Amino acid sequence: MWGVIAGVLAVISVVLLSGRGAGFLAGYSTASPSDRAHVNASKLARTMGGAILVCAAYAVAVALLVYAHVQGAVDRTTLFLTCGVGAIVPIAALCVAGYRANMGTCV
């Protein structure tokens, strides 16, 4: 399951990192045309693509840890602690990307 999530996130990330797909981002797609004129859509897409790439890497790491747990190499406590503490990284990446978008550094 985590592998599928990682794959979907990776595809979305590639699309956004290419500078396309800003219309799929919440906030940008619902903004008025006058508000969209003040935003560099390709830079916004690349910024969010980088954050989603971090989320995809986290999903891969979780998938590998779950696989190691199923094989008996990692106990449940280590799995939960590692995945829980590791969740800080993608959350922080999304927060930084959102901050950059809101503060106008994507203009």
Q: How does this model look, in words?
A:
- With 107 residues, the chain is mainly alpha-helical.
- The protein has one domain.
- The chain is built from five helices and no strands.
- It has helices spanning 2-17, 33-36, 41-71, 76-86, 88-102.
- The chain is elongated and about 55 Å long.
- The protein starts with a helix and ends in a 5-residue tail after the last helix.
Helices and strands, with pairings:
Elements: H1 2-17, H2 33-36, H3 41-71, H4 76-86, H5 88-102
Helix pairs in contact: 1-3, 3-4, 3-5
Alpha-carbon distance between the two ends: 37 Å
Number of strands: 0
Average pLDDT across residues? 86
Low-pLDDT parts are none
